[in-house]
Amino acid sequence: MMIEFLMKKIEAYIRDHKFEDVKNALIKVGISGITAYPVLGRGNQIGKGVTDSKLGIITEDILIPKRKIELFCIEEELDKILETIMTRASTGNVGDGKIFVSDISEVIKIRTQERIKFTV
C-alpha cells in the first residue's frame, strides 16, 4: 500500500521544567500522540560547575536533566508542531534544547501486521 503523503518523526530535547507547558500547548493545537521521557545529556554548554569547599575541587556535571519528546505527524502538520515546541520551550538562554526532524518511510501495525509505506 503506497500512501501519497510524507510522514515525519520529531525528536525534541527540551528543559525538563518546560515539558508540561509544551505538552499542553501541543494538545491545544490538536496533537495528542506523543511519547516523552526524562533523559540526561549535554550539547555545547559545559555543564554546571560544583565546588567542594572542603577539598577545593571544582567538578562538572556534564550531563544535564532534559526531557525528550517524540512524535509523528504528516508533513502538513510539521510547521505548526515545530512552532509550538519552539515557542513554549524557549527561555532565550543556552541549553533550551534541540529539535530533530526525520523522514519516516514505513509503519507496521503490530496487531494486524499491516505495513504502510510512505513516499520519501
- The CATH topology corresponds to Alpha-Beta Plaits
Helix content: 10-25%
The appropriate CATH architecture is: 2-Layer Sandwich
Total strand count, please? 9
User: Can you tell me the residue ranges where pLDDT is under 50 for at least 5 consecutive residues?
Assistant: none
Radius of gyration: 18 Å
SSE topology string: EEHEEEEHEEE
SS-based class = alpha+beta
Characterize the largest beta sheet: strand count, sense, and whether it forms a barrel: 4 strands, antiparallel
Q: For the residues shown, what is the average pLDDT?
A: 87
N-end to C-end Cα span: 14 Å
Looking at the chains present, what oligomeric state does this protein adopt?
A: single chain
Supply the CATH class: Alpha Beta
Q: Helix segment count?
A: 2
